[in-house]
Design a protein that fits this description.
The structure holds two protein chains of two kinds. Chain A is an alpha/beta fold. Chain A is built from eleven helices and 19 strands. Chain B has helices at residues 2-10, 19-23, 36-44, 66-70, 77-92, 96-100, 104-111, 115-123, 125-135, 151-162, 175-181, 183-195, 210-214, 218-232, 248-261, 268-276, 280-289, 310-313, 320-325, 354-370, 381-391, 399-405; strands spanning 168-173, 198-201, 243-245, 277-279, 302-307, 331-335, 375-378, 395-396. The chains are: A alpha/beta, B alpha/beta.
Chain lengths: 424, 411
């Protein structure tokens, strides 16, 4: 059996896992992230949405959090506490600002939500967003152009602008016809082209006449991957107005930047990552309930590798990532470590809600944890991100906020136990 | 074919999330390859039993395997592409070039005795232009240099002179690159292992078949890897002995690729060999974590840039070389984050793919150049040749640094 040994092994390379690993490495722990593949970062918008709806639209996340924590003691935020949420956001913004993408920063905070257009022209509340998104805040939008590109079939300027107008904004679609070497392209292909200064100059020269007289221009999130800050600034200069990015369909260009930032922070802190190494088994002492996880077996070439550690962070995601599954008998299972779940409908309660927008009875399922995010089924496993029970992230607009804050908090819990003081 | 069915079953796990597209180094630089999602799971649905790909774009996949590595759903994207490429070649025929450059053992045996002439030929401009015209091997592609001696000859001469060593047995799989082109790498591997108390065993061995496989010559590849597995397996009679290799692409072939791509999952010999095969850095890090690696390292006051090749990443073991290099006092290690050098074994040698390979590697070459390092450490030989070709920097296996830091070079 192949063997590795670390102080902490983190399972999952999404936002929660990478944040937890980075914080633990910064605290001096020997950390390795094992993950079956890339995680949520590449698919999410790249914004940190802390709390958008509770259930009405939240203007001030901090106030919304207080109400949510009072009303829902089982919610992840209730276990994390709003103090840790604030601290996590602050740490994140500071980390990004000194990260691997020069000049690229996140703006906003927990005091007030920004209201940013989505690709459908819906205004979405976000707490912390890339600076290149901020000019899209509906509070400050005036006469705004939404710019589409014919070859980009995943983004329809007309639809976006129409919905923004329906929300009372002075929005107008413009469409740029580009000849590319392919009939269609995605945001990824355009972002790579915009990284090229010469191509970018040509792009802006074609777009500029279409957006003259507008105060702001919204573009799908394609403004570069290598030096996105420079690309964004250059576009603003060339177009002569404020430019903002609008999240589009996956792959998410700002999400890829987020991954690079988090992976870079982990690297700088001395942590390691094994991508591809999905967990296929584990060993524990004690019985099925309780006890400690001694090692996880990761899928490595040739035969599995046993990763031994003092503690584990489970950040494998929930139902969407396949870490929690519902079988045909309506039984839910945690597939990575076989841990007990919480947030399940009770005996005799309905398993399914017929309305499309109803809250499904399994929506809040997650790994059962105590008030310190420790898995009830294993004393040395803490849980972070979408693996946690009690939230409905898509409805609350809370997914990345929970991921960031729980990853941050899980690391603090473990670092305190492992005897390392978390660096300020 | 049961294995193809298993690979095909994985495509039903594809949720079209596009994560593979973000990581593909080839699609990032050329429209000729539409990306792993399109050429892989999407196109596979149109390849009904026995029929070939609906277009030829899958031939531009370099087979680096990054798509399969990053897929969060476990879809065997690169493996499906390899199967589709084979079907394409089976219909359209395999060019003579691909039959030649995929046989490092033939080339090595032919070139070694006449190394000065062979090396001159490989560097003669007119002959390279001719080779491009006649064969389709790009005239500028990095050609290895025949060492003019073989690693195995050195090993057996030394064994006869010094006698059998004692210690914990370990089987060394050196691969063709070490045998014919860089025998010193093998000498250093042996020295480092012996320094750590191992008795190194080197069975007579040939090619793993990876170049044949990546050009779609599956039958020849199967023969090669089966023969290799049967050469190594008799040495595994006790439960502790493992096989170790310094060519990370060839060890990956033994560990997984041959079984998955060549449908050899049922071969019990290969299965045993796969389970006991280690990459050299993987093994040394494991020893270190168990407190069994000697750490009597001398300082190496220099800066090196490290690149983890795609096939090394395909082991899914992270980057153990970084942890090992960090043990060497005063050695400043700069991790290169650009993904791929472009060469992908023999991909970048092919005339129609050379420019693509160079475009893939551009970021890596630039990063290496900007790192201020005097050299690059990299686990795979063809990647090292490409990095030197693209960046002008010398490149060596990470084991070289351990070897020097142990003071085994005599200096």
């Amino acid at each position: 059996m192949r063997r590795r040994r670390y102080d902490v092994v983190v399972i999952g390379a999404g936002t929660a896992g990478l944040v937890a690993a980075t914080r633990l490495a910064q605290a001096g722990a020997g950390v390795c992230v094992v993950a079956r593949g890339f995680g949520s970062t590449h698919l999410a918008a790249g914004t940190i949405d802390v709390l958008g709806y509770a259930p009405e639209r939240v203007e001030r996340p901090l106030d919304g959090l207080s109400r949510l924590i009072a009303a829902q003691p089982e919610h992840p935020y209730s276990r994390i506490g709003s103090g840790a949420v604030s601290a996590a956001l602050e740490w994140f913004a500071t980390t990004v600002a000194s990260g691997v993408l020069p000049g690229y920063t996140y703006v906003g905070g927990i005091e007030r939500n920004l209201l940013l257009p989505t690709a459908l022209g819906v205004l979405k509340p976000s707490a912390l967003v890339p600076a290149s998104f901020a000019a899209g805040d509906a509070h400050a939008l005036r006469r705004v152009a939404v710019a589409g590109i014919t070859a980009l079939r995943d983004f329809h300027a007309g639809l976006c602008a129409e919905n923004l107008r329906a929300a009372g904004l002075d929005a107008h679609p413009v469409t740029l016809a580009l000849e590319l070497d392919r009939a269609d392209t995605g945001t990824l292909g355009l972002a790579r082209r915009l990284d090229d200064a010469q191509w970018r100059a040509g792009f802006c020269a074609r777009l500029a006449p279409l957006v003259g007289g507008f105060d702001q221009v919204g573009l799908p999130a394609i403004l570069g991957l290598r030096e996105p800050h420079a690309v964004w600034r250059d576009c603003e200069q060339r177009l002569g107005c404020a430019v903002f990015e609008i999240p589009a369909l996956p792959p998410s260009v700002p999400g890829m930047r987020l991954f690079e930032l988090l992976a870079g922070a982990l690297r700088a802190a001395g942590g390691t990552v094994a991508i591809g190494a999905g967990v296929v088994g584990h060993r524990r002492d004690g019985g099925r309930a309780g006890g400690r996880v001694l090692s996880v077996q990761a899928d490595t070439a040739g035969s599995p590798t046993s990763y031994e550690a003092d503690a584990f962070v489970l950040a494998s995601g929930g139902v969407h990532s396949g870490a929690i599954a519902l079988d045909s008998h309506w039984q839910a299972h945690e597939l990575v470590l076989g841990l007990p779940l919480a947030g399940l409908p009770g005996p005799g309660e309905p398993r399914f809600a017929p309305g499309y927008f109803d809250e499904q009875p399994f929506a809040r399922v997650g790994v059962a944890v105590d008030e310190r995010l420790r898995a009830l089924g294993a004393s040395n496993v803490v849980v972070a991100g979408a693996s946690l029970p009690g939230a409905v992230p898509w409805r609350e607009g809370s997914g990345e906020g929970i991921a960031l804050a729980s990853g941050y908090h899980a690391a603090a819990v473990l670092a305190a136990e492992l005897g390392a003081g978390v660096a300020a | 074919m049961a294995e193809l069915e298993a690979l095909r079953a994985s495509l039903d796990h594809c949720v079209k999330c596009t994560i593979c597209e973000t990581a593909c180094p080839v699609a990032a630089v050329t429209p000729l390859f539409p990306g792993p999602k399109y050429a892989g799971p999407q196109a596979e649905r149109f390849r009904v039993a026995g029929e070939v790909s609906v277009d030829r774009s899958v031939d531009y996949c370099s087979g680096c395997g990054i798509c399969s590595q990053v897929c969060p759903q476990g879809v065997k994207v690169a493996e499906l592409n390899a199967q589709a490429r084979r079907a394409l070649k089976a219909r359209d025929g395999v060019p003579l070039r691909d039959r030649l450059i995929t046989r490092p053992t033939w080339l090595g045996r032919a070139g070694t005795p006449v190394a000065p002439l062979a090396n001159w030929t490989l560097r003669s401009r007119p002959l390279r232009i001719l080779a491009q015209r006649l064969l389709g091997v790009h005239r500028d592609a990095p050609a290895p240099r025949f060492a003019g001696r073989r690693f195995s000859t050195w090993f057996w001469k030394r064994r006869r002179a010094a006698g059998q060593r004692t210690g914990r047995r370990i089987v060394y799989f050196h691969g063709c690159g070490t045998e014919y082109y860089e025998p010193w790498e093998g000498e250093r591997v042996v020295a480092v292992l012996e320094h750590n108390g191992f008795e190194v065993v080197v069975p007579k061995q040939g090619c793993c078949g990876l170049p044949l496989q990546s050009s779609g010559l599956f039958e020849d590849a199967r023969r090669a890897v089966r023969r290799l597995a049967r050469a190594l397996e008799p040495e595994l009679s006790d439960a502790q002995t493992v096989i170790v290799g310094n060519a990370s692409s060839c060890t990956l072939m033994l560990k997984r690729e041959a079984r998955e791509i060549l449908s050899l999952e049922d071969d019990p010999v290969l299965r045993r060999v796969a389970a006991r095969t280690y990459d050299i850095c993987e093994l040394l890090l494991e020893l270190h974590q168990r407190g069994e690696l000697r750490t009597d390292f001398r300082p190496l006051p220099e800066r090196v840039a490290y690149h983890a090749p795609c096939q090394q990443q395909g082991h899914w073991i992270g980057k153990p070389a970084l942890a090992l290099l960090a043990l060497i006092p005063q050695l400043e290690v700069c991790e290169l984050t650009a993904r791929c050098c472009g060469i992908a074994g023999t991909y970048g040698l092919k005339a129609e793919k050379y420019e693509i390979a160079m475009a893939v590697g551009r970021d890596l070459f630039a990063q290496a150049g900007a790192s201020g390092a005097g050299a690059v450490a990299c686990d795979s030989e063809t990647c090292r040749w490409q990095i030197t070709h693209g960046s002008g920097l010398p490149a060596a296996h990470p084991i070289d640094y351990l070897y020097r830091a142990y003071g085994l070079g005599g200096g």
